[in-house]
Amino acid sequence: MHIQFQTCHSIKTLPLTWNIPESINHRPHRHLLPPPKSTVTTTLPPLKTSKTHSMPPEKLEIFKSLENWASESVLPLLKPVEQCWQPQSFLPDPSLPFDEFTDQVKVLRDRTKDLPDEYFVVLVGDMVTEDALPTYQSMINGLDGVGDEIGASPSPWAVWTRAWTAEENRHGDLLRTYLYLSGRVDMEMIEKTVQYLIGAGMDPGTENNPYLGFVYTSFQERATFVSHGNTARLAKEGGDPVLARICGTIAADEKRHENAYSKIVEKLLEVDPTGAMLAIGDMMEKKITMPAHLMYDGQDPKLFEHFAAVAQRTGVYTANDYADILEFLIERWRLEKLEGLTGEGKRAQDFVCGLAPRIRRLQERADARARKMKPHGVKFSWIFNNEVVL
Ligand SMILES: [Fe+2]
Ligand SMILES: [Fe+2]
């Protein structure tokens, strides 16, 4: 346990990253059961925001008036179910005679046997993040003007959210089954982590405000595109081309979703440039928090930080990726050239457009400090308490 706390010292030096929020290290009271007393800090950081329903009610009209646009421009980015991949196509076929099925499982285990433990830590963290999907659907449905008010609402916003959720649902299912069959991970600890995480929720700071919500999802979908793309590359390098294809296929979904959410923000920038620019500035000031930042396995109160540190070290998701995503979105939304802003809007524009180089500079300094520290090990329950060096 002592070693684990040393680890966090170096992790905390990483600034402004999507998956390393300094303000939300752990809030034991938000887990269903507290971690052991010896590991609990007594000062709990404040929530990211206590604001709710922060969009002025008159702006609800904007989302109503964009319904036709959403039907024509956003819904086509969904894939009809019949054209979608399903997890089963990537997995051993249980309908085969038993011997043939187990042969396929043996082949799978053979492919995964040389992947390092640290790879599994990242893949489990990604899977757990995907599995907390009920939290994300609730978050989106809590956004004013775009939520599914009856559960089967015909509004294009609600149609999108339900179908998006249904597409996303395959990600956790596929990763979970693959991890289960690999035999490399402790499924019970993973399942516990998922249960804790869904119980804990998330604190993205989106204030039931669809402007903030869609900025968050644009950023977050691109971040998952980047990280699944990197786990695909590492699986290939580690000798598992099927897992590489799985992660790559999931990454492609994330890219399509990113495209939809950033299209919505692009539209908001067109119809309400200052409102949308302020929302981007607000979210970037708060820092985009990884959706699974409240993860806990019943053992390690710093589980999220430890997972994020492994993601950073293996290059699956790093502070530089955070800066890259920001730059990508600035370019995609043409924020530097955005006109018609109020003074307040211009200040947000300057802040956002100057942020990426600042993040990179801070990261370089943090990297230099981290290099001076001795490497140390952290045990992860997900891999049977094997130690991963950070
Ligand atoms: Fe996903
Ligand atoms: Fe996603």
From TrEMBL:
Its EC number is 1.14.19.2. The keyword Amino-acid biosynthesis does not apply. Keywords: Chloroplast, Fatty acid biosynthesis, Fatty acid metabolism, Iron, Lipid biosynthesis, Lipid metabolism, Metal-binding, Oxidoreductase, Plastid, Transit peptide. Residues 27-54 are annotated as: Disordered. One of its GO terms (cellular component) is chloroplast. Its cofactor is Fe(2+); Fe cation. Coiled coil: none annotated. This is Putative stearoyl-[acyl-carrier-protein] 9-desaturase. The keyword Membrane does not apply. Binds 2 iron ions per subunit. It comes from Medicago truncatula.
